[in-house]
Specification:
Helix content is 19%, strand content 27%.
Length: 161
Amino acid sequence: MVPKKQAARVLTQDQLEQAVVNEHDLPGLIVTKIGVGTDGLGDGVVKAFPDRDTHPGTCGPVSGAVDGGSSHTPVGSVLRIARSKGSTVMLYLVSYQEEDAARVIDELRASLRTCKAFTAGPMKVAYQDVRATDEPSLGGEGLSSLSSRPICSPGTGRSTT
């Protein structure tokens, strides 16, 4: 008899909020909670992101991950903004049903093989230097990536990353 695969535990919204990092985990940073559904972002957003205006289209999963989502509907989500002098990082923690979680990771992994730069959304925000990094050794499976987004300095027309 083949043993049954044990179902993965799907974190609830409350469990995600307990698990997300805070100022105690990141000394010296200011960590801000983004409230429920703030402009389609924030704690408790449980909708799939529609296919976005991402070019090239093969970068769609990476573009979704940048915004803390995917084309699959999550069970729960939390968003924190961590700040220090001159730096801001968006921290997302999203929970999916097991079958959707596997699809999200597979799609993101495949996208990261070819996606090196993309533009996304109605404002055509540009991302460059997209690359996979070493996978974190947390949980059953993980994936990590980096990208940079040029930011236009107000009044100068110059971009920085």
